[in-house]
Amino acid sequence: MKMRNEFTCPLELVHDMIKGKWKPIILWRLRLGPTSLAKLEKDIDGITQKMLLEHLRELIDYGFVEKKNFEGYPLHVEYSLTESQGLELLEALKIMQHIGIEYLKSQGQEKLLVEKDAYPVTGGFAWIHWLAANITRTELTENESQTAHDFIQGCNSWTSIQGNQQSKELSCFYGGMTPPDQAHLYELHVYALDQLLELQTGFFLNELFHAMDEHILAQASLKGIYEKI
């Protein structure tokens, strides 16, 4: 991309460097650490490989992203934020993310934040300990996520990058509580529906929300602070 020769302030230059739909999203995804081209393309919904490569080349030219080639076969390449400008720009993106979150919350659109994994917890994501659907009884005993067979369970956050991408088979149960460094707010959300849901074991949170749409009769939430002793 050709940079302008005339500008009224340096902010215009930075705007040109990261403008467009995909560059801020690419940079935001790279905050999680070095990753391959294939993983970037998979994680950024809707982007094509051609567009991703084009934007990565420009971000590398501007000094925000670095590309590292590893010897051996097959060829392995990783992209990451640079320690100088990349991480510095990330701080600005965090402020933009926070403003966006607060605006959506003020408009009563918290559901959209959950569907898009946008809550700023554990590096930018709401950590999901347990997803369960089609529970038809009024009581669950301790550790029934490991033993019960009369309801279905979805994937928790151990399948994420921060959970070391644990397999679905090992992640369709309750997982927690282990706050890494400080007290955490935990939320339990319960929904009463007018029908059972057609979901399969291993469903994701957004799939649950879509399945519940227009079937919610009532809902309740319980919040509590868990402190690591």
CATH fold node name of the largest domain: Phosphatidylethanolamine-binding Protein
The topology string of helices and strands comes to HHHHEEHHEEHEHE
Which CATH architecture of the largest domain would you pick? Answer: Alpha-Beta Complex
Class by SSE composition: alpha+beta
Whole-angstrom Rg: 21 Å
Note the total helix count: 8
Let me know the CATH homologous superfamily of the largest domain. PEBP-like
What percentage of amino acids are in beta strands?
15-25%
| Number of separate strands | 6
At the first level of CATH, what is the class of the largest domain? Alpha Beta
Arrangement of strands in the largest sheet: 1-2
Average pLDDT reading: 83
Main β-sheet: number of strands, strand sense, barrel status? Answer: 2 strands, antiparallel
Query: What's the shape?
Result: elongated
Helix content: 25-40%
Total discrete domains: 2
| Spans where pLDDT lies below 50 across 5 or more residues | 117-124
Question: For the terminal residues, how far apart are their CA atoms?
Answer: 53 Å
3D architecture notes:
It is built from 8 helices and 6 strands; from the N terminus they run ααααββααββαβαβ. The chain starts with 9 loop residues before the first helix and ends with a strand. It folds into 2 domains: 10-106, Winged helix-like DNA-binding domain superfamily/Winged helix DNA-binding domain (Arc Repressor Mutant, subunit A, Orthogonal Bundle), CATH 1.10.10; 110-226, PEBP-like (Phosphatidylethanolamine-binding Protein, Alpha-Beta Complex). By secondary structure, the chain is an alpha+beta fold. β1 and β2 form a beta hairpin. The strands form 3 sheets. A two-stranded antiparallel ribbon has the order 1-2. The chain has a two-stranded antiparallel ribbon with strand order 3-4. It has a two-stranded antiparallel sheet with strand order 5-6.
